[in-house]
Amino acid sequence: KAGVTQTPRYLIKTRGQQVTLSCSPISGHRSVSWYQQTPGQGLQFLFEYFSETQRNKGNFPGRFSGRQFSNSRSEMNVSTLELGDSALYLCASSLAASGQETQYFGPGTRLLVL
Amino acid sequence: KQEVTQIPAALSVPEGENLVLNCSFTDSAIYNLQWFRQDPGKGLTSLLLIQSSQREQTSGRLNASLDKSSGRSTLYIAASQPGDSATYLCAVPPRGGSNYKLTFGKGTLLTVNP
């Protein structure tokens, strides 16, 4: 069974641009969560999608948005990029049957904002 | 607000040693706790998930314990190997909530020297 895949793996952007990251969950998984990881703040929850609906949201500005498609694939978008958005962005998927299942993480997309 | 602390932040041991990593959390009303491993620049790999009704969970040389009343979990690694070198993170869901929105500790960076 293929794991969680994220594309692209690396990205370099400049301030003010926007970026879209993609996440394909494990086949059959219906929940996709997104996290931002930085050396200073560690891993922080961005948002979670289930059946094309955002169910949970973290404390990030509105520049961070996402969506989920009918095949459970998810994208996140960051508009008007700032230097502080440089981070490793991880997505995780789970079956979403009971809410107590293990979260499976992808390899991440490393974003560098110049 | 749930807070997760991991001590020590870094640990260096010679190969073959048994070691313990610590994780503490402020809100004990959790359904479970997960331990993850992260290799440099990579995503997270789930190691163990302990339900609140369990006290221990074992996988190979790894043993994780959970004491909800004291807000603590430990990850015991037996007979450490250089391949165990990585950052180890613990994570908990919100109070009474599901695993889609995890709060992570900052991690313990483990180095096992040959």
What's the quick description here?
The complex is a heterodimer of chains A (114) and B (114). With 114 residues, chain A is an all-beta fold.
Q: Which descriptors apply to this entry?
A:
heterodimer, A: 114 residues, mainly beta, B: 114 residues, 0% helix
Structure commentary:
The complex is a heterodimer of chains A (114) and B (114). Chain A has 114 residues and is mostly beta strands. Chain A has no helices and eleven strands. Chain A has strands at residues 5-7, 10-13, 19-24, 31-38, 42-50, 53-57, 64-68, 74-78, 87-94, 104-105, 109-113. In chain A, strands 2, 4, 5, 6, 9, 10 and 11 form a seven-stranded mixed beta sheet that branches. A four-stranded antiparallel beta sheet of chain A has the order 1-3-8-7, with no helix packed on it. Chain A starts with a strand and ends with a strand. Chain B has 114 residues and is an all-beta fold. Chain B has no helices and eleven strands. In chain B, strands 2, 4, 5, 9, 10 and 11 form a six-stranded mixed beta sheet that branches. A five-stranded antiparallel beta sheet of chain B has the order 1-3-8-7-6, with no helix packed on it. Chain B is globular. The model of chain B has no long low-confidence stretch (mean pLDDT 93). Classes of the chains: A mainly beta (114), B mainly beta (114). At the A-B interface, strand 4, strand 5, strand 9 and strand 10 of A face strand 4, strand 5 and strand 10 of B.
